[in-house]
Write a structure and sequence with these properties.
The chain folds into two domains: 164 residues, no CATH class; 376 residues, Glycosyltransferase. 41% of the residues lie in helices and 19% in strands. The strands form seven sheets. A six-stranded mixed β-sheet has the order 1-2-12-9-10-11, with helices on one face. It has a six-stranded antiparallel β-sheet with strand order 3-4-5-6-7-8. A hairpin with a 5-residue loop joins strand 5 and strand 6. Helix 9 packs antiparallel against helix 10. The two termini are 28 Å apart.
Length: 597
């Protein structure tokens, strides 16, 4: 089954289907291939999309009707290089002249951003599925409503490109980039303008930007956030985006696209990083738990089959190895094995989880610390150990073996004692050794924190779980104290603060939504979790369905602290963990009181 067919099947007739079919997930730029033959010489280039073109003494001139939105591709005969002109109203009124290799390995663009009272000019590079500034921007003095001309000049002897914008015969602005490689600079010469020469693009205007409808806009036309099923629909949209962007193949035999550091290039292992895959599996699993939808089941069983057939037992159990180099990786990987067990009932995955955790315990447990070292070569334990405690507790539920309960309780109490030291706010430091916790208690900010949002959520959920098992009021008191700490430090104008790790900070939100927010007197946090899901969908989602780490927005650009810090929406785990905050709201709405992963 092809990908688009799968999406239709997944979302059926619900609003999420309308979102996905409406074109909200397109990529920039849209390329239209022009068929030409090197044996048929032509005086003029062939152009699609209603544009007019001609070759004059000064180079190649393109014109279009005023106000037209179109994309067009030019291909000089017999050459592998191309010049593309793209005029498309998106977030900014932007006109791009794209210079690039046909196989997509080299792309530069002269980008003009039109504003009400002028504009900006930049040289941009296409990298990691995103346009980023290579030089500029420089301010333009022009009338955005009037036709303009973009002139690209190549200086072969200096290996440079000059980009100028003119209007009514006067120069509106100019940018000169001196460090263009020979491989790239040859594209202008191959475009037919000589070793030194110019390509001129004129007659362009761009219509006023039309803000595209977001998935939430479309959903809200038919549903209110107060209506039952609203957050389920949000979760379906978010996980639908995950599947669209990261699943390859059909539902029966496909798998999640392998990534390493979030991308599918430069893989350290062709099967990809296991924990990065887990961040995407968890979202699919969450929505299967909420909906019971057969398609989610098919996806999970297909992924489980891939792991069963592609990894050896030793690879899946090797604490400290390539796929399990730290305790947190072991936690997420173990959780994923147990997800596969929950779906397939295959005891093989339980055995892998048990042996992995036994190896973790043997390798990193320190009696004096009363916890696990974070990884080899360090002397501190970490709040990331929460996932290990949850996995031990799940193994106790599956097997009934007391030792797993004892290990889970030991882990929880060790973290509570060591990482909660010197705090009276119910929160936990992210690291501590036998002598001290690490960090300033008050330092909790986006992309810079001594604590860890999802770790605090996971600890509160563990306390709620132990309260339900034992009836011990001490655990319940800890739950409410942690809730107060979260409200004090993590309520960022009605949206949860993604404080420490934009690749994993939604990991344990589902446990929190289920175990903690099903308790009485948690209304403020229930509202905060739902508001965060809404904000992620409206402010942190890219046009093509990736999710950024700044949950109040924006998804991309310098205004996002996480984006500037290197956590991009296009990375699998950045999208994955943000989506987990959305699926947590769906779990909360569904009132699942005993969520297992």
């Amino acid at each position: 089954m092809k990908q688009n067919t799968f999406i239709k099947r997944l979302l059926g007739g619900c609003v999420a289907l309308a979102v996905l079919l409406s074109g909200c997930g397109g990529t920039l730029p849209t390329e239209q291939t022009v068929q030409t033959s090197p044996q048929e010489p032509r005086e003029d280039w062939i152009l699609t999309g209603g544009w007019k073109t001609g070759r004059g003494e000064q180079g190649v001139t393109l014109t279009s009707p005023p106000g037209e939105n179109a994309s067009a591709l030019l291909e000089p005969l017999g050459e592998s290089w191309q010049i593309q002109v793209s005029a498309k109203a998106v977030d900014a009124r932007c006109l791009r002249v794209l210079l690039g290799n046909q196989d997509g390995t080299v792309r530069l663009a002269a980008a003009v951003y039109l504003e009400e009272t002028g504009g900006q000019l930049a040289l941009e590079q296409w990298k990691y599925e995103k346009w980023t500034a290579l030089d500029g921007p420089v301010e333009l003095s022009l009338d955005a409503q009037q036709p303009l001309e973009i002139r690209l000049t190549h200086y072969a002897d200096q290996q440079s490109i000059q980009i100028s914008v003119t209007q009514d015969g006067a120069e509106a602005g100019m940018l000169r980039y001196p460090d263009v490689s020979l491989r790239t600079i040859h594209l202008l010469a191959k475009a037919g303008v000589g070793a030194d020469g110019e390509a001129v693009f004129s007659g362009f205007t761009v219509e006023a930007a039309v803000e595209p409808e977001t998935p939430v806009d479309i959903l809200c036309k038919t549903m209110s956030p107060e209506e039952p099923g609203f957050y389920r629909a949000l979760g379906e949209i978010a996980v639908g985006d995950v599947i669209t962007n990261f699943w390859t193949g059909d539902t029966q035999t496909g798998k999640i696209r392998p990534t390493w550091e979030g991308y599918s290039e430069d893989l350290a292992d062709p099967r990809g990083s296991i924990w990065e895959t887990a961040m995407l599996v968890f979202g699919i699993y969450d929505m299967w738990a909420v909906t019971g939808d057969q398609t989610y089941y098919d996806l999970l069983t297909a992924e489980a089959r891939f792991f069963r057939e592609s990894f050896s037992e030793e690879e899946l159990e090797n604490a400290g190895g390539l796929f399990h180099w730290a305790s947190d990786d072991c936690a997420w990987n173990c959780m994923m094995y147990l997800c596969f067990y929950s779906v397939t009932a295959d005891q093989w995955f339980v055995e892998r989880a048990i042996r992995l955790l036994d190896n973790v315990n043997a390798r990193w447990y320190d009696e004096e610390l009363n916890g696990l070292y974070y990884k080899d070569g360090v002397d501190f334990m970490s709040l990331y150990e929460v996932g290990i405690a949850w996995s031990w507790l799940r193994l106790w539920e599956i097997t009934g073996e007391q030792r797993f309960y004892d290990l889970a309780l030991r882990s929880y109490e060790g973290m509570h004692t060591r990482l909660g030291a010197d705090r009276d706010d119910g929160l936990y430091y992210c690291e501590a050794n036998v002598n001290w916790p690490v960090g300033d208690r008050e330092r909790i900010a986006e992309a810079g924190s001594s604590s860890f949002l999802t770790g605090n959520m996971g600890m509160a959920a563990l306390a709620a779980k132990f309260y339900r098992i034992t009836g011990n009021q001490t655990y319940l008191e800890r739950v409410y104290q942690t809730n107060q700490g979260l409200l004090r430090y993590y309520d960022n104008d009605g949206v949860l603060l993604n404080d420490r790790d934009a690749w994993t900070n939604g990991s344990y939100a589902a446990f929190y939504a289920s175990e903690v927010l099903s308790l009485p007197d948690t209304e403020q946090m229930r509202t905060l979790v739902k508001n965060t899901a809404m904000s992620i969908m409206t402010n942190a989602r890219t046009e093509d369905g990736y999710y950024g780490g700044s949950w109040s927005g924006p998804a991309e650009g310098s205004a996002s602290v996480w984006y500037s810090g290197g956590s991009k929406p296009q990375q699998s785990m950045t999208t994955g963990t943000s989506v987990l905050m959305v699926t947590a709201a769906a779990i909360l709405e569904a009132e699942i009181e005993h969520y297992v992963r």
